[in-house]
Structure to design on (226 residues):
């Protein structure tokens, strides 16, 4: 499948798949979307030690900005990124996230995140432990292992099989009590699939270019982060 590096609305890059008319991140702004959906609506609910599961490791943008948050907020994060088709090193080299984030002092950490071996634990820093797992989402069998899930799969328009009750049951099982899942999607079918497996689901303001997004909680909303 053809792949292109494109510039999104906030100046940051993403990978575009012309055959699907789909991108790894929002064409309205890759960095803006990542911060809004996964940091402000997800990670900001937590403090101290946090275990994160990312569904769709992709370009590593979400992992890198989460690493930067460990410095800003003194968090200790264990990060698991699942990806069936890792992005090629030649594509990673064309991504401009370090420059756009004005994080040149942390270039070595961005490189370390991408160069680390798959399926091996990597100590990126004293506060950020990473394991990248090369496998299909349906192979996830974690049980009460994570506090937060970044659900960043390709959209339900092109890969509806990734947004089913079966997948969200696995996500529910993977979360600790009062754990949270955040995603950019706000489709009614996605919300219903989440609710059917036991999630409490909120519609929240979306990132630039999207009216709404979803946040799902394994438990009552008021208990999140407790």
């Amino acid at each position: 499948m053809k792949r292109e590096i494109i510039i999104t609305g906030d100046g940051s890059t993403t990978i575009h798949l012309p055959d699907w008319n789909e991108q790894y991140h929002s064409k309205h702004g890759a960095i803006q979307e990542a911060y809004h959906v996964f940091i402000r609506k997800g990670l900001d609910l937590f403090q101290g030690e946090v275990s994160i599961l990312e569904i769709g490791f992709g370009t590593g943008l979400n992992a890198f900005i989460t690493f930067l948050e460990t410095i800003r907020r003194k968090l200790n994060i264990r990060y698991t990124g699942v990806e069936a088709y890792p992005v090629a090193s030649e594509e990673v080299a064309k991504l401009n996230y370090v420059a756009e984030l004005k994080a040149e002092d942390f270039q070595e950490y961005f490189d370390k995140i991408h160069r680390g071996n798959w399926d091996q634990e990597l100590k990126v820093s004293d506060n950020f432990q990473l394991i990248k797992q090369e496998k299909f989402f349906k192979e996830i069998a974690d049980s009460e292992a994570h506090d937060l899930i970044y659900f960043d799969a390709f959209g339900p328009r092109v890969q509806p099989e990734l947004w089913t009750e079966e997948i969200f049951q696995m996500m529910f099982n993977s979360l600790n009590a009062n754990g949270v899942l955040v995603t950019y999607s706000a489709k009614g079918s996605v919300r219903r699939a989440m609710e059917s497996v036991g999630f409490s689901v909120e519609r929240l303001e979306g990132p630039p270019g999207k009216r709404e997004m979803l946040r799902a909680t394994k438990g009552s909303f008021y208990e999140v982060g407790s």
User: Anything to note?
Assistant: Residues 29-223 form a domain with the Rossmann fold fold (CATH 3.40.50.150). The two ends are 44 Å apart (CA to CA).
